[in-house]
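Posting here for the record, re: nicotinamide-adenine-dinucleotide.
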Amino acid sequence: MRIVILGCGYVGLVTGTCLAHIGHEVVCVDTDVARISALAAGEVPIYEKGLKALVAANVAQGRLSFALVLPELDSSIDAIFIAVGTPAGGDGKSADLSALAGAVEDIAQAASASPLIVVKSTVPMGVCDAIETMMGRLRPDLSAEVVSNPEFLKEGRAVLDFLGPDRIVIGTDDGAPNPVLEAIYAPLAEAGVPIHWTGRRSSELIKHASNAFLATKVAFINEVADLCEKGGADIRSVARGMGLDARIGPAFLEAGPGYGGSCFPKDGVALLETAQTYGVRLGILERTVASNLQRRGGLASRVVEAMDGSVDGKRIGVLGLAFKAGTDDCRESPAVDLIGDLIALGARVVACDPKAMPYGHPALNSLALALDPYDCAQGCDCLVLATAWPQFSRLDPFRLAQMMTGRTIVDLRNGLDVTGFATAGFAIHGVGRRPDS
Ligand code: NAD
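Prediction output follows.
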C-alpha cells in the first residue's frame, strides 16, 4: 500500500514509521521546516523508545521518506492519514481544529484522484462528517471518502503500542469494513489484534470517551489518596487491593500529581464542549476536570507544607520535567506547573530530566537545569520527585544526603525507597500516605 501521512509529531511519525515497518510505502509530510530537515538528516526530533532505529531501518530499506510539501495525490496513493495536532482552543474548551482544516485544504489542493482520508488526529464527534462536507465544497469534482481511525498509543511506549495495540478502532460512513484499511492493518490483524469496525461518530466518541474514562480513574484515585492522608490508610496498598479486582484493573490507579500531557487535559474539556452542544451534561467528567486542575494547582502547597510553611529563598531540586516517564513531552506537565508556582513563591528551583527540556515555557525562563539528579540535589533544601523515571527510583539516598543542605523529600510519584531515605536521615512526604510511611 502507498500511504501519505500529514503531521510528523508523536502520532504521525510513529504511525508512518510503523506502517512502513509492516511493509507499506510511506511518505511523512510536515509543514515544520526544522522537523523535516532533522528527519531528512537522520535525526528524530522527538524521544520515543525504539523509534530512531526503526526510522533509520525503514528509510534505509526505501519504505519511509519525509517531505515538506504533499506529493501529488493521484490514484496510486491508497490512503492519506491526517495526524496533525488538535490542541485546546484559545477559549481553553473547544478543540482548535485549524491545523486539521489546513491539512484538509492541502489534500484538496494536491488531489488529482478521489482520496481516502484517514483521520488519526483526535477529533470531536462529527468532525469526519464536516471534513467530508469540506472536501465536497473544495473539490466537487472528486468524491473523497473519510474514515475515522483514532490512535490509542501512549507516549513512552508508542512504537510497542502501535504495533501491538489492544484494539484498532475504525469508523466508516456506514460502519462496514473498508477494504483499503483492512489491507493496511492486515499484518496486525493476522497477529491477533482485534479490529473494531463502527460508524464514524461512534469511532470519534470511543477515543474521547476512553481518554475521559482514564482521566476519571486518575482523578478518582487521587481523591482517595487525599482521604488516605487524613485517615491513615496507604494509597499504594488501597490501589493494589482495588486493582486486583479484574473488573477494576491496576492501570491508571497510581496516585500522583494529577494527569497532564497533550491529550487527557484537552480531550476532557473538548468532550464536555461536544456534550454541551447536544444539550447533554457529563457531570462526572466535569468533576474530573475540576478535580485535576485543583490537584495540579495544589502541588506547590505540598512542598510549602513539607518545608514548614515557606519556600521563599529556598533551593528546591525538581526531578523530572516531562509529564510522565519515557517521553520528552512537557506539554501540560504537572512538573512544569509545580516549578512555575515554586518560582512565583520565591523558591530557587533547579531541575533535571533525562530527556525533556522545558522549551516554550516562558514561565520557566529563570529555571536552572542540572546535568543529573546528584548535580540537581547539590545545595538543595528540598528535593521533589515529579516524574517517575525509573533511574530516579534507584538514587542513592546517602549520596544525595552528602549533596543536600536540607533533609526534605517530596515524592509526588511514590517512587522512592522510603526506608532507604529514612535511614539516610530524610523526612519523606509521599502521596496518599503518612510522612515517612
Ligand atoms: P504534535 O504536535 O506532536 O504533531 C503534530 C504535527 O503536525 C506537527 O509537527 C505540525 O508541524 C504538523 N502539522 C500541522 N499542520 C500540518 C499540515 N497541514 N501538514 C502537515 N503537517 C502539519 O501532535 P501529536 O502529539 O502527534 O498529536 C497529533 C494528534 O494525535 C492529536 O489530535 C492528538 O490529540 C492525537 N493523539 C496524540 C497522542 C499522543 O500521545 N501524543 C496519542 C493519541 C492521539
